[in-house]
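Can't paste images in this forum, so I'm doing it all in text. The chain is below; anyone willing to post the predicted structure tokens underneath?
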Amino acid sequence: MTITDLHKEELDFFYATYLRKLEDQEDLKSALITGKEWFKNFVAELSAEQLAFSYGVGKWTVAEVLVHLIDTERIFQYRAFRISRNDKTPLPGFEQDDYIIASNCNQRTKEEILEEYLSVRNATINLFKNLSEVELRRMGTASGLPWSVAALGLAISAHQRHHEIILKERYL
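Text version of the structure:
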């Protein structure tokens, strides 16, 4: 499943900016694996000082960005799981800044962050590799927006890609 396989209504909202960070023919499952490798390599090279770095007042630290990626993936994975199981319950949004404040991520080591990320990403990969075409096409509502299971999976990778670019441009 690629971004070109999504329906127009799945791309005409806030996350379109993120989704368009993926190549048109980039496959959902391979994008998740590529993102996992990038994260592992990126975190391995970070010093404690870099992990704590913020490029401006009120901006997140590198640790906060990394934990934000984990939190968002966990939420999107949960949404995809529920919708894939044909759950029609509209799912609420979340306030990312509140999650970061409550995460205590600036007291965590890069090893702890990486361990959590790998647990979440491996669960995401396992979820999506076992979904059928029918399940990937199922539609639901999250944050007041229409989503297919496939769009949620692609958004996980695209959201990470968005933050990769920010980390490279503004942090390192």
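The first strand starts at residue 139 and ends at 142. Residues 3-171 form a domain with the Four Helix Bundle (Hemerythrin (Met), subunit A) fold (CATH 1.20.120.450).
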